[in-house]
Structure formats: C-alpha cells, structure tokens
Amino acid sequence: MSDVRHVLVLPDRDAAEEVVEALGERFGIAEEPRLVRDALAGEDDAEDAQWLVVLRDEEERLDPAELDRFAGQWEGWREEP
What we know:
Helix content is 30%, strand content 28%. It is an alpha+beta fold and 81 residues long. Strands 2-3-1-4 form a four-stranded antiparallel β-sheet. The radius of gyration is 13 Å and the shape is globular.
C-alpha cells in the first residue's frame, strides 16, 4: 500500500470547505480530506492565507490532471509533490 497524497491549494477557507464537500460527490472520496491553513511567507493577516485540502489516495485511483481542473473551478490548483 502506498502513501499517495494530493494537495489542492485554494484561495480561501470558503473555497476549501466547498471543495471538501464537492470532492465526495464528484470523486466518491470516503475519507474526509484534511483542511490546512497555509499563511504566505511574512504575512500575519488571515486574509493573506491560502487553504490546502490534503487527501489520501492510497489506491492511486484519482487522476492528478482531473483534480487540477476540479480545483480550478474555485481558482485553485493541485500542487505537485
């Protein structure tokens, strides 16, 4: 079993929360992804934070390009490992 993870980068918390909900509907993800606040370097203001959605894909069934297009619907992207 591998430890494949995908990281989707979103512009704000609302977008990240919407992505988490939509992931289950679109990709049938059973395990809830993890939300992580990623403050930009040198920025203390919460407005200057990106949000990461981290999801495990141990069976490697999720297409990285499809995840990137999916995140793009919320002005986000999939970060390459």
